[in-house]
């Protein structure tokens, strides 16, 4: 940008403004975003170089005043407009410009931004005057992000390892499966991939609060609490032109199955290229992962967490009540739900709007379940408030508390219509709350951040505070116990046994009826068809004895009705007619998919061609049709991401595909792979690739 300032002396002519993309990108941890634009983090100075033509800037003659504005109606009152002169020193907490060096006609500057400035796209202008005359011109545009490296920023983290993991890392894992068999799913967050930052800014400008009052919305973008709430609402499309449409009925033919996605990038690009039309389809981990991508891109430290045995308490009584008939079949219309697992996001920030002690990790849930202040969003709520049972805390503490603490009551409907309470010690809500470890491809259990140890005085105090009366009653111990046992692991396509393991700890002989039932189940607890059953009318239990009753589950029974969650629920109902006692036990079984093997061919160096080979062996006794590999990450182009395999892939046959990679940057990359066919769904694999300098 060039400009001319005429005054009493010689003209001051600006030849160009250099935004110093390389040095600013390095200093602000935005190098991946600064290839053709300036992206910096608030509360930290950035460099700017002005090149003058004809004569140099003279402080005694020339006056330079800068202007930074964001949003469609910037104002100083709203904090979206700042005018600041060239000063002699940086002033903390204010917009400042300081001359750092001058060589002939080149003036090097540092511009400082407040650590609480609204984030977003800014236009930077300069007014230059000599004497009574002057002119102004645009120096360029820059995008301002939250800054977890700045102690004055509300998203400040003091651990460099955690900053790297929760802001800069572009790949990770999401945990699925069942509480007894936790499965890690690789995910490409891709927050620094081409176009993603622009899409995130578009998402902010599409939110209803911006459309209603753009000036107020842009002003409030200084707050990570506000931003997290906006993103939570905009990732689903229930109230707005949000990103994802949720669906849970296993009918995804007019879109993409939620299990098919392996990253956020494809989803966000589809939303943008379709004119911000909803993308079909998402489920909880997809909603949480896309929110994680957007929030990390904006600079807010964020992670995806999974809660196993997650309660959906619709009437806010902290009770999940299941009603069964005398055959152990659940009466769906009379029951609330426990999901096998449920994923949400956590973001790190201070909470100046709340009492002291609630800074840190905040839970936010973009999956549309219940409305919050009239909108389908949830949080952010301090994880610490959940642990303490402080349900008056903003936002949506009762719902999140119930997800990890609700009590479960089981009722059996008698022949006369009356209901008898059953004992079930196998259903505990809120277990193995999981997230990826910092700097390692391993699971970290963070249950202790949500809950005190079971039975501890602190747990009892938290339940009192939450008025969780059910949890304060002592559990009734029974003389007979039952649990469901399984083999060490069960793989897709195999036949296997599960066992009802029953102990009689009384001095009496008992005659019972045992019903064993296996049904396929979706991760959100919705049951499918039966795939195994056994009914023993007269089961004798000797005093102080143990018994193990097997149930055989055949592939031919579950193959057609298994959902993409790969889950089977086994339930046992033990009835003692003489005493009218009922004992329930259940277990969710995860069937393990075959392994995708990934080899990297070539020398892993910057800008060198590499070849990735992905292979999978058909573990079934029948051929596979419609086989497709999908890949994300590691420098892949759009055209390379989907590779079809010729039909059929016979039983036991190994199928291979190869794709060219060209990683641009030195460092760690992750290639994420998904395999789909008519009988094998959502098989995931990944490979870390360490790229060295050329």
Figure out the total of helices. Answer: 14
**What is the domain tally?**
4
Coarse structural class:
alpha+beta
Strand order in space, largest sheet: 1-2-4-8-7-6-5-9-10-3
Main β-sheet description: 10 strands, mixed
Global morphology: elongated
The H-level CATH homologous superfamily of the largest domain, spelled out, is: Transglutaminase-like
Subunit structure: Monomer. Interacts with phospholipase C; promoting alpha-1 adrenergic receptor signaling. Interacts with PLCD1.
Binding site for Ca(2+): 405, 407, 454, 459
Cofactor: Ca(2+)
Protein name: Protein-glutamine gamma-glutamyltransferase 2
Structure description:
The chain has 694 residues and is of the alpha+beta class. The chain has four domains: 13-145, Immunoglobulins (Immunoglobulin-like); 169-470, Transglutaminase-like (Coagulation Factor XIII, Chain A, domain 2, Alpha-Beta Complex), CATH 3.90.260; 477-590, Immunoglobulin-like; 596-691, Immunoglobulin-like. 16% of the residues lie in helices and 40% in strands. The protein is built from 14 helices and 38 strands. The strands form nine sheets. Strands 1-2-4-8-7-6-5-9-10-3 form a ten-stranded mixed β-sheet, covered by helices on one side. Strand 20 (407-413) and strand 21 form a beta hairpin. Helix 3 (196-205) packs across helix 7 (265-273). Mean pLDDT is 89; it is low at 1-8. Ca(2+) binds at residues 405, 407, 454, 459. The active site is at residues 284, 342, 365. This is Protein-glutamine gamma-glutamyltransferase 2. Its EC number is 2.3.2.13, 3.5.1.44. Keywords: Acyltransferase, Calcium, Cell membrane, Chromosome, Cytoplasm, Extracellular matrix, GTP-binding, Hydrolase, Membrane, Metal-binding, Mitochondrion, Nucleotide-binding, Nucleus, Protease, Secreted, Transferase.
